[in-house]
Amino acid sequence: MTDFEIRRATAEDISAIVALLADDPLGAKRESPDDPAPYRAAFERLDRDPNQHLVVAVRDGRTVGTLQLTVVPGLSRRGATRSIIEAVRIHSDERGNGLGTELIQWAVGESRRQGCALVQLTSDATRIDAHRFYERLGFEASHLGFKLPLD
């Protein structure tokens, strides 16, 4: 699949990204597309941070996918840098045609370019199809994740 472009997100992409984030049962509960202010503030923080790579996949002028790649320097693993893939979303009309694979392959390639020794991601326990997708791409379910809401 080569009829789309993966590029760094701009402020003009915020509403399309938020729509992708909100377009599933989990996202519908936690996103607020009608209130753009917190998303704009978050985008400004991300855009200033060289370790944050918020990207969009665009086909024919339409945002059809997104993900955030965070590069994290560390001391463990002999001082290894790792990357974390977050907020992977593919437009519902585009699922199953290889775009998700291309987007994850972009993130893995960028992680290598950034000198990362490891790429990791988490996926909600209810997203069984996503788990199979990541396993097909070579990711292993090696850890158990925990969250503590601070709200």
How would you describe this structure to a colleague?
With 151 residues, the chain is α+β, with helices and mostly antiparallel strands. Helices cover 36% and strands 24% of the residues. It has six helices and five strands. Strands 1-2-3-4-5 form a five-stranded mixed sheet, sandwiched between helices. The radius of gyration is 15 Å and the shape is globular.
Give short descriptive properties of this protein.
alpha+beta; 151 residues; five-stranded mixed beta sheet; globular
What is shown here, in short?
The chain is α+β, with helices and mostly antiparallel strands and 151 residues long.
Q: For the residues shown, what is the average pLDDT?
A: 93
Helical proportion, percent range: 25-40%
Distance between the termini: 41 Å
Distinct helical segment count: 6
The largest sheet, given as strand count, sense and whether it forms a barrel, is: 5 strands, mixed
Please report the total strand number as a whole number.
Answer: 5
Helix/strand order, N-terminal first: EHHHEEHEHEH
Radius of gyration over alpha carbons?
A: 15 Å
Low-confidence stretches: none
Q: Give the overall shape.
A: globular
Strands in their spatial order, largest beta sheet: 1-2-3-4-5
Based on secondary structure, the structural category is alpha+beta
% residues in beta strands: 15-25%
